[in-house]
Amino acid sequence: MSATPSAGPTRTVVAMSGGVDSSVAAALLVDAGHDVVGLSMQLYDHREGDERFGGCCTLDDLRDAKRVARRLGIPHYIVNFAPQFEAHVISNFTAEYLAGRTPIPCTRCNSEVKFAALLERAEGLSAPLLATGHYARLTFDAGSGRYRLWRGADRAKDQSYFLFGLTQAQLACASFPVGDLDKRTVRRLAADLELSVAEKPDSHELCFVADGDHAGFIERHTGVRPEPGPVVDTGGRVLGAHGGLHRYTVGQRKGLGLSSPTPLYVIALNPALNTVVVGGRTDLDRHELRASRVNWIAGVAPEGEVAVTARIRHRQAERAARVRTIAPDRVAVCFESPQQAVAPGQAVVFYEGEEVLGGGWIDSADTVTRPT
Amino acid sequence: MVTGDVIIAEAMPIYLDHNATTPLDPAVADAIDRAQRELFGNASSVHRFGQQAKAALDDAREQVAALIGARASDLVLTSGGTEADNFAIRGVVEAADAAGRRHVVASAIEHEAVLNTLKALGRRGLAVTLVPVGRDGRVDPAAIADAITPHTALVSVMHANNETGVVQPVAEIAALARARGVPLHTDAVQSAGKIPVDVGALGVDLLSLSGHKFHGPKGTGALWIRRGTALRAILTGGRHERNRRAGTENVPAVVGFGVAAERAARGLEVDAPRLAALRDRLEAAVQVAVEGVHQNGEAPRVPNTSNLSFDRVEAESLLIALDLEGIAVSTGSACSSGTLEPSHVLKAMGLPSARVQSAIRISLGKGTTEAEIDRVATVLPGLVARLRGLGRRTPEPARSVRA
What we know:
Chain A has seven helices and 17 strands. Chain A is of the alpha/beta class.
């Protein structure tokens, strides 16, 4: 028997997390006549730590994905991506925190795991497309021959912030079936299809830090016990002690263990001196930041200075800013009005209206106030 | 050249994962079905209903005993191979505890039913020595003998390995253990029904069996115990199984176990050489069609098992690609889902990690046909070529599992 060349439907791999968004993404593709294969990534070893029976929520997620696939009548497999997740996401996550920065593992996971190793798996299964449940939209511009990335139609659920690192090659293989929908519609579709996950709550926590204690996770995972050090004010005066820089994020107010007539915030983490610098709310204001490892969705940096709107964290309204390329993949971003809590390690993402232009990783922020 | 891009799985799915489990023999299914309806009595009851059930149980026990050249009365029926392994190890360890013998020797390639039982007992103070194997997948009897101490309570070495099919020198090990006065347990779950298994010839003291590996029902198994072997019951309760294993017997399943054992014994002479020829045919065809293929485990092997590594191929991808073509194989033992440990068997053989991660297990069964094997040999090269041709977007990190 010889191989029959197929003129059949496009095979599309769907990254199924067990949540409602990727479940509906799979359902929509099945409906559109794709030959859908569900893959769920197992990202870390579930045997670790918890010896209690029934303690692991993530295994439940994998089971949910399997149930949905069965309901949709599509093949489904759990694939082991623990080594890639460790190499590209967890190690970066721990290293960044230990260096006094605030990482975004979800963005790393999208660029370095999902649209890298998982995409390669899809190719290996003869699937030219990899679909996810992200709230983002993608179009192809025949004129320029380029893919363009847009915010998800549901403003409240928009996940484009986490996708700024995708290249044209990655976008060419990407599909975001729920990007045109709002969450309510997604849940309604799931309910109509009697998918078991229709009412499943949205996930917010870091998937690999089960108890939400990221500092404890970092210590257990790396075996590093970061040195305690002083908490100082902007003048260098010691106000208290901290239990390791990895416990803090710029903009943090809770858990400082300081009493003060006015609220105090972490305004900087200084790994060279091992200090947490605190100050008042206005001390958080920044007008300009520098970012590196910049990715422009179009594949090329724009000429000169461009006016954009920019976000320095997920779930934040964009603010007007000007972006200037200062080195091949480095930019300076100047905001019209001061931004609060610019945290090194987070991403700055540039938009023009609904379109994602690109973004980069925040290195530093200047207090210098520039006239706007 | 891209071949086998998308192949419509127009043919019936091909099942080549018989070491995980086997389909129920129709004759076995009939026997179970009849027993389900007719033999509801409790085999411990005095009345005729109970007696009928007891008689069926005894007949089945005879059939299973015949498969391994044993006396029926030396068999304890269990819920499967895992329970038989647990019974052998925990039972002997508990009995030897009073004598101060708190050490067990096992090979590093044992099934999880053995290894994790030893691990659990290790947490309670049992000393365990795991003896590595050679690159050929075989345990060295001398290494086992060297590991035995005056405190050794038990040696456990499997008869045939589930992943590679390599048949272990159990008779030699038995002689060495006997000379040291240490009982030997062998997990014969993967050999029974595939090659002759004879408790006398093997010279072991305890032997585990599982029904579903030779077309019997799941949830059936047995531990054969040489008379005079000191071991304690681990399932306590009523006086079933001569007070060695409590719990009302699952009579219909045991009836099926018996029929399956009888049919396996009868079919052995025909099936074993036929499967060996098919397996060899597949391996030869793959070696010709694909470069960079390595056979894991050397002869003697059980006739149905082939473990092959494909250079520069992620086994997990190949498994999925094959399944999408309607061909079912595995990447090792079937119990590994939910854990990310690469095959402990191939690792113990000292194979490089790249070879471990690119290994698939193909295990044939009595329903396997030449046409099926030829289809696998046709499909496999195209899939391997495609997986090898992928653009490397990201360097694959070395696969290691954190401690």
